[in-house]
Amino acid sequence: MSSPLLDVWEAASGSPYYPAVGKNTQFTVGFVLLLFSLVLGAVFGLNRSFVNLPLLGGPAAVAFGFGAVYMICAVGVYV
Amino acid sequence: MRSISFLAGCIAAASSFASAELNQSKPLLSKQVLPSTFTPPQVFKNNNLVKNINLDKAYPRETINVIIENIDSKPQSEYYLPFETSLISKIGGFEVRDKKAAEKGIFKVEVVGFDAESSTEFYKVTLPEPLAPNAQQTLSIAYSVLSSLHPVPAQIAQSDKQYLQYTFSAYTSSAYVTEKQRTKVKFPNSDVPDYTSLPSELNDEQKADPQKQGATLTYGLYNNVPAGALQPVSVRYEFTKPVTHATLLERDMEVSHWGGNLASEERYWLVNQGAGLKNHFSRVEWQKQSYMNPPTFALKGLNLPLHPGAVDPYFTDDIGNVSTSKFRPGKREALLELKPRYPVFGTWKYSFRVGWNADLSSYLRKLSAGETYALKVPFLEGPRAGEGISYGRVNLRVILPEGATNVKFSTTVPIVENSTSLHKTFMDTLGRTTLSLTAINLVDEFRDRDLIVTYDYPWTAGYRKPVVITLGMFALFASIWVLGSIDTSIGKSKKA
């Protein structure tokens, strides 16, 4: 039996969804980002200044944000 | 006067409590309510009707093949099929097709009831094209009757044969006059110790009624049976297999775009509706027998065929991980073989949960237009067993990513309730959009039915999680800087 949503599904047969980072590389990507964030965060901790806050803290926060998402996925909690 | 009506109300309320029983399969159907004077208009006639009752599985499956004729002067499209109210709540998977053109699909079916406490309710079948006067059409009406088999005797010894009793009507209940009809009963084997014999005068061919041939009984032929006529009969037959029934199945499917994963989890509340044990369970006898693997009415194991690509399965119950399971990944299917902690004999219960992961790419597609996604998942997976499994109620949740909107779904499984809500779990700020669907009285034949869900998921919503963590981390760095720059030294602050 044909239904409109089934037609929609069939029409999209050429474009299955793949995430930007596959399941096998989630751990590597997450680990590298978290390590990067740790290093930058440590450097910021050693010389705290208003200039270093966006210069080191900004990239460290972004790396931690994405790194945490990938690391949580890599350990099996698919968020 | 007021006190009398108040008292009557109290009695009615109390009696409804007293008669209330735990029935998870109580229908939620929003019924079309008709006046109590309603009778289906006599616009059809059943020319020839054959009802097949198949007792091979742990639930009876009935198929009515009927040639209907329009005896009215106008085209008609509404065909009614009556059932007792107590029976209609047990009927599942009611589907009507055109026997000669099955590819036309399933006809529209509704339950209609009366406003009064009537004992009869109807299935209203709407024919896709009205039937012209004097024209005929062959309908194939199929349904299952759940929780209707009763073990007789109700308690047997551990290695005895189990016998089940099924009571039904030799006349198919119909809202119209039926010219010719038969009821055929197919048993799993020819061991049928008891069945109701009807007087041969009822039978049009004046033969002994029913006729038994091997594992088949035939009631009829009956001529010109009036509308609404019933003729209750019972059969008792051997069925030394578990009568597995899931009073409740909760099934969750969680979509993760970041992880590229579809996580499935199923929680079962199983009961074996077969005969109970007469004596205590004897482990020694059970172990001695298990080498010979004789037929038994206890549920020993369940096989769950999962779709290929399923990984990381788990099987737990109230105590914790159940280690008696095997997982055989394969190209065609990934078979998950479960063994409950104990053999589930009649009247015993077992509840457990199983779950697994799969790659999202085989279930989710991105539409070319906009940021819309289409998800296609099986509505029901669950165990595959020769004797079949019935489900009183299935609660299915499709947990979509946080921020998904405009959720639409389509499935051929009859749904009694649907809603969209928010489900809060790990790392959520708003909560994930969740589509909840409820179906009642399903059987394992619905395993291959699909559910298609489409939803809009803007890329901005996708970045919610990392952005929230990023902001939190940045706030931490900023507060470290602020706290670090507070001068806490004792004495006068040094200036220049």
Automatic annotation (TrEMBL), chain A:
> Does the keyword Transmembrane helix feature in the UniProt annotation?
yes
Q: Where in the cell is it found?
A: Membrane
Q: Topologically, how does it sit relative to the membrane?
A: Multi-pass membrane protein
Keywords (alphabetical) are:
Membrane, Transmembrane, Transmembrane helix
Q: Which InterPro entries match?
A: TMEM258/Ost5
One Gene Ontology cellular component term attached to this UniProt record is:
oligosaccharyltransferase complex
Keyword NADP set for record: no
Highest taxon of the source? Eukaryota
Name a Pfam family for this protein: Ost5
GO BP terms:
protein N-linked glycosylation
What residue intervals traverse the membrane?
27-46, 53-78
Describe the family membership recorded for this protein in Swiss-Prot or TrEMBL: Belongs to the OST5 family.
Q: How does it assemble?
A: Component of the oligosaccharyltransferase (OST) complex.
What the protein does comes down to: Subunit of the oligosaccharyl transferase (OST) complex that catalyzes the initial transfer of a defined glycan (Glc(3)Man(9)GlcNAc(2) in eukaryotes) from the lipid carrier dolichol-pyrophosphate to an asparagine residue within an Asn-X-Ser/Thr consensus motif in nascent polypeptide chains, the first step in protein N-glycosylation. N-glycosylation occurs cotranslationally and the complex associates with the Sec61 complex at the channel-forming translocon complex that mediates protein translocation across the endoplasmic reticulum (ER). All subunits are required for a maximal enzyme activity.
**Name of the featured protein:** Dolichyl-diphosphooligosaccharide-protein glycosyltransferase subunit OST5
Species of origin reads Ophiobolus disseminans
| Source lineage | Eukaryota, Fungi, Dikarya, Ascomycota, Pezizomycotina
From TrEMBL, chain B:
- Ranges where the record places region Disordered: 188-212
Give an example GO biological process: protein N-linked glycosylation via asparagine
Report any Pfam family annotated for this entry.
Ribophorin_I
Q: In which pathway does it act?
A: Protein modification; protein glycosylation
Protein keywords = Endoplasmic reticulum, Membrane, Signal, Transmembrane, Transmembrane helix
Signal peptide range in chain numbering: 1-20
| Cross-referenced InterPro entries | Ribophorin_I (IPR007676)
Q: What is this protein called?
A: Dolichyl-diphosphooligosaccharide--protein glycosyltransferase subunit 1
